[in-house]
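Final report, closing paragraph on structural work. Over the funding period we assembled a curated collection of sequence-structure pairs, and we close with a single example.
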Amino acid sequence: MPNIKAAIKWTRQSEKRTKRNLSVKTRLKTVFKKAKISSDDTVVRSVESAFDKAAQKGIIHPNKAARKKSRLAKAVAAFKAMPAPTATAARTKKTTSKGKAKAK
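Its predicted structure, as stored:
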């Protein structure tokens, strides 16, 4: 525990900032995960904007924001390129020969 009055105040302020920044960081992680599987461009743009704002306010490093935006763009492109599952592929069932005796 600090002995100087100013240091006590710095500690108090630091704890308050840490708590506020933690909620923003948690929200960023959540929206990032949701946007990764989204094919909606407006959602992706809003997440990129949230990363830019957090970097501008000093909550996260600007390079981290750029890295996350890049990974998000890559993930969304991969998700869009993925073929849609077909109904026949879901219905097929593999058959096994557990009950059959081995022939020598």
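DSSP finds four helices and no strands in the chain. The chain has one domain: 5-81. We thank the funder for supporting this effort.
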